[in-house]
Design a protein that fits this description.
Blueprint lengths: L37 E7 L5 E6 L6 E7 L3 E7 L4 E6 L8 E4 L9
Antiparallel strand pairs: 1-4, 2-3, 2-5, 5-6
Length: 109
């Protein structure tokens, strides 16, 4: 294509068995991961710290995912229909915002 030698960077995936040094490989061929979820990114655009919770159901039991400082972001693995909420860092009883993960990217705006 040009005048003289040309080079480019390429990645050649090694045999999967070379990934294991101290144990016998569990498989001789690469497999497709079973996880088919997605990553959720939550951005605190306020000037106050907030807590991010996952809800087992809307208004149900909660699990703390992250405490986000002001103007920061955090994330977690998720699936469609998962519900998340932001609360003030000092008052977990007040829901500032609720998010339900949609089936398509446009559903999550």
């Amino acid at each position: 294509l040009g005048d003289g030698p040309e080079t480019f960077m390429a990645y050649v995936q090694p045999d999967v068995t070379t990934f294991y040094r101290d144990i016998d490989p569990p498989a001789s061929k690469a497999v497709t991961p079973k996880y088919n979820g997605m990553a959720g990114m939550f951005i605190n655009m306020s000037n106050e710290p907030v807590r991010l919770f996952w809800e087992a159901s809307i208004g149900g039991a909660r699990s703390l995912i992250d405490v986000q400082d002001r103007f920061s972001a955090g994330g977690t693995a998720t699936f469609p229909t998962h519900s998340f909420i932001f609360t003030p860092a000092e008052d977990e009883s007040k829901v500032l915002a609720r998010f339900t993960v949609g089936l398509k990217a446009n559903d999550n705006v």
